Amino acid sequence: MAEGARNRMTLLLAITTEAGQEQAETLARAVLEARLAACVALTPLQSLYHWQGELVTGHEVQLLIKSRPEQLQELEALVHRLHSYDTPEWIHWEASCSRGYGAWLTACGPGNAECSSDLR
């Protein structure tokens, strides 16, 4: 195994969008309080998309959710249950991260009362 590979861990990244800042923050807090992610980054953006036969332009907030692969099913279920859209965007993939970041991500998971900011 290459030296770089030994210093890496796998994480789950997932993207969804919400209609506005308040909805995005509410969803992000629910995900974090359920310990299904260590971090959720919120980014305002303008989206153009097809919806019900029309081309729509709207302002949304994108949530980039950083979690662990084994939490995918529970995370997806929670997001779909609480999302404000009938058909929410849900895109996810596995990526590599440094061991240090992966340790912090793991420390923020279920059963841990507090994440250690020293690991981040």
Key terms:
single chain, 120 residues, alpha+beta, Alpha-Beta Plaits, elongated
Would you write up a description of this structure?
The protein has 120 residues and is of the alpha+beta class. The protein has one domain: Alpha-Beta Plaits (2-Layer Sandwich), CATH 3.30.70. Helix content is 31%, strand content 38%. The protein is built from four helices and four strands, in the order H-E-H-E-E-H-E-H. A four-stranded antiparallel β-sheet has the order 2-3-1-4. Strand 2 and strand 3 form a beta hairpin. The chain starts with a helix and ends in a 13-residue tail after the last helix. The mean pLDDT is 90.
Low confidence ranges: none
CATH architecture label name: 2-Layer Sandwich
Number of strands: 4
Q: How would you characterize the largest beta sheet?
A: 4 strands, antiparallel
**Approximately what portion of the residues adopt beta-strand conformation?**
35-45%
Rg, Å, rounded: 16 Å
Mean pLDDT: 90
Reading the helices and strands in chain order gives HEHEEHEH
Under CATH, the topology can be stated as Alpha-Beta Plaits
N- to C-terminal distance: 25 Å
Indicate the CATH class: Alpha Beta
Helix tally? 4
Classification by helices and strands = alpha+beta
Shape: elongated
Query: In the residues, how many domains can be counted?
Result: 1
Strand order of the largest sheet: 2-3-1-4
Q: Approximately how much helix is present in the residues?
A: 25-40%
